[in-house]
Amino acid sequence: MANTDWLPAAWLGKQADANGPFGALRKQIDSLIDDFDTGMLSKTDGFAVRSNLSETDKEICITAELPGIEMKDIDVEVTGNRISLKGEKKSENEEKGEEEGREFHRIERHSGSFFRSMTLPFDIDPDKVDAAVKSGVLTVTIPKPPEAVTKVKKVEVKSGD
User: Fold this and answer.
1) Please, which pLDDT band fits residue 106 given cuts at 50, 70 and 90?
2) How far apart are CA 38 and CA 47, in angstroms?
3) Which residues, at least 6 apart from 48, have a Cβ–Cβ distance to it below 8 Å?
4) pTM of the predicted model as reported, rounded to 2 decimal places
5) By the 8 A CB rule, do 25 and 9 touch?
6) Is residue 138 scored above 90 in pLDDT?
7) What is the DSSP string of the chain?
């Protein structure tokens, strides 16, 4: 046994020996290590939506990465002070392996449904919420109600000398 046999095969630039006695196990372990940084949700029916929430003195903006998802498959819902993003990315026929003679060795593109819900510190007026998709990024803009708008006053910093 070589000193490098315990390393994932991909790290060594070679394929796992699927014909050996532990080939299937090796392949599964290699896949687990390769997928480690994608998180545990990558192996479930859904997938994690990466999102950012930012704020100005007049509005809150939510951006969410939704590559490959069509606008008709995205729902933005508002209930009181809660906003929810949900939808589904449909799998493509070629990922199902239905094409005769095609065998997939790795499937990294995710499909399935997603749900992301956020609670804001004020009630949301659903008629004023704006949502748009551009280049696979959903941007939801939520204006703050007048009572939630903060007045910012710049304070001069003086030298302590």
Assistant:
1) confident
2) 10
3) 39, 41, 42, 114
4) 0.60
5) no
6) yes
7) --TTTTS-GGGGTS---TTSTTHHHHHHHHHHHHTGGG-GGGGSSS-PPPEEEEE-SSEEEEEEE-TT--GGGEEEEEETTEEEEEEEEPPPGGGGT-STT---S------EEEEEEEE-SS---GGG-EEEEETTEEEEEEEPPGGGPPPP-PPPP----
Instruction: Give the whole-angstrom CA distance, residue 149 versus residue 122.
Output: 10
Looking at residue 106, its amino acid is: R
More reliable by pLDDT, 76 or 150: 76
Q: Is the pLDDT of residue 11 over 90?
A: no
| Dihedrals phi, psi of 119, to nearest 5 degrees | -105, 130
Straight-line distance from the first to the last Cα atom of the chain, in angstroms, rounded to the nearest whole number: 71
Cβ atoms of 68 and 47 closer than 8 Å: no
CA triple 51-74-68, angle to 5 deg: 75
Beta bridge partners of 76: 85
